[in-house]
Design brief:
The chain is of the alpha+beta class. Helices cover about 50% and strands about 15% of the residues. The chain has 2 domains: about 140 residues, no CATH class; about 140 residues, no CATH class. It starts with a helix and ends with a helix.
Length: about 300
């Protein structure tokens, strides 16, 4: 995390103040930092600050009042950081039984200063992997090994789970031309693709910048140069507006990474380029995702 803290010297103070204030307001067991910061891949523009707070018990009515005060204080501490903070307030009992709905037990997720009550353990298996293997205990007990043990192929399973999201994003920028591109969302989706290949291949997790360099070294082609250029935009906290041929290269990257992901697992799929259609600048991926859904259903 040294690189991140050197780039954002005000970040450690923000985290320390948040932890101290929250720990004195709620009955907590552990504060664990995860996400881009622990991967030394944090960008104020493109990342979230992710913290999971394990509570001794469920939240009660008075605790919700305390949470309101915590959120109010965060907004005055550092507006930039507070707006990208995502905090999970999770009762310890949810760790012990992560797959069930706890009707008499409440936790909360705070994101973009908005609160959502939860009755079930909220994290994915890849989040569990990150916490267990790379999480940073900010305060309290080190209970990382108490988190649900992720399946061996958690990154592959998460990739399959994300296929519907990929199908939806393929209908928008960066895979389609638009007069109002969402550069931030596009950057993270572009960099998601090479990094997920790394995770599927190695059963490990690295930051998006390292994932881009890995992809560039592993698959020596022009797509590698494109991915690194996008990663450099993210590192500099600037938009993709200066990158040439984003749409065309993003389409090629999507096809390549989808094909390669299944090949890594030894699963035969048809040449996706043969299923790809383009008409008047619009890319049609519908046949590709239809084929992938059929393959996934038969796995």
């Amino acid at each position: 995390m040294k690189v991140t803290y050197d780039r954002y010297p005000e970040l450690p103070k923000f985290l320390k103040t948040f932890v101290e204030f929250t720990a004195t307001s709620l009955t907590t067991k552990s504060f664990i930092l995860f996400g881009d910061i622990v991967l030394d891949d944090f960008s104020k523009r493109y990342s979230q600050i992710k913290i999971i707070i394990i509570l001794e018990k469920g939240l009660w009515e008075n605790d919700f009042n305390e949470l309101d005060l915590i959120i109010e204080k965060l907004s005055t501490m550092n507006k930039d950081f507070s707006q990208i903070l995502k905090v999970y307030f999770v009762p310890y009992a949810m760790l012990e039984n992560p797959r069930i709905n706890h009707q008499d037990l409440e936790g909360m997720v705070v994101e973009n200063m908005q609160q959502e009550i939860i009755n079930k353990y909220p994290l994915s298996s890849t989040d569990d992997f990150m916490i267990i293997n790379k999480g940073e205990v900010l305060y309290g007990e080190d209970i990382r090994q108490h988190f649900p043990i992720p399946p061996v192929e958690c990154f592959w399973q998460q990739f399959l789970f994300e296929i519907p999201n990929l199908e939806q994003i393929a209908k928008a920028y960066p895979f389609q031309h638009t007069n109002s591109p969402n550069y931030d969302l596009a950057t993270n989706w572009i960099l998601y693709l090479p990094r997920v290949l790394y995770s599927i291949k190695t059963n490990d997790l690295i930051g998006k910048m390292k994932g881009a360099y890995w992809f560039s070294n592993e698959y020596l082609n022009k797509l590698g140069d494109f991915v690194v250029e996008v990663a450099m935009c993210r590192q500099r906290n600037v938009s993709l507006s200066s990158v040439m041929n984003v749409v065309e290269n993003s389409r090629k990257l999507l096809l390549y990474c989808l094909q390669r992901a299944f090949q890594i697992k030894g699963i035969h799929i048809p040449d996706l380029k043969e299923l790809y259609k383009e008409d008047k600048g619009h890319a049609n991926f519908s046949r590709i995702f239809m084929e992938l859904r059929n393959i996934i259903e038969n796995l």
